[in-house]
Structures are given as C-alpha cells and as structure tokens.
Amino acid sequence: MNWQLLARTNTHPLRISILEVLEMDGGRCLSPNDLSSELQMPLSNVNYHVTELFNAGLLELVDERPVRGATEHFYRLAGSDASGPVSAEAVEVGV
Length: 95
Hints:
- The protein contains 5 helices and 2 strands.
- It has a single domain, classed as Arc Repressor Mutant, subunit A, CATH 1.10.10.10.
- Helix 3 (32-39) packs across helix 4 (43-55).
- A hairpin with a 2-residue loop joins strand 1 (59-67) and strand 2.
- The protein has 95 residues and is α+β, with helices and mostly antiparallel strands.
C-alpha cells in the first residue's frame, strides 16, 4: 500500500470511515447509496468522497447498474479479494 497516497487522500474523517466499512468482513462491495445508509451521512457527501478515493486509486469500480434513470456504481477497496461479501443489491445484478 502506498502510505503517502493514503495519508494525502484520507485527511477527511468520512473517507476513513468509508475505507473502514469497505474493509469489514474481509472486503465488501458497496455503492455510495449503501455506504450512505450504513454511515448515516448524506448521499451527496458520501458520493463526493467515494469519487475522490476512486480517483486516488484506493477504490476500484466493480459494477454499474441502471437505477431510476441514473447509474449506481459499486466499489471495493483496490486490490481486495473478489470473493469478499457484496451488498444485497449487487448480488441481484450478478457482481
């Protein structure tokens, strides 16, 4: 893991919480909507920080699915095992 990159991108407590949730249970695959519900934070805030973590290379996009005219994205920690648990919604779309 690139610790300098991790330190630069994780100065915000919400980013740390997002990484911790995605690391739980051996690695999880969740959408910003799932993370928003779990962290009890506004979706817009969670989505912003997930995008920043993705752009920094700390998250990887696993799947996308259409939801009510938008596209829901599912992320996991970069380099995590693909066999980790996924959200219920992701299971429905075949992640």
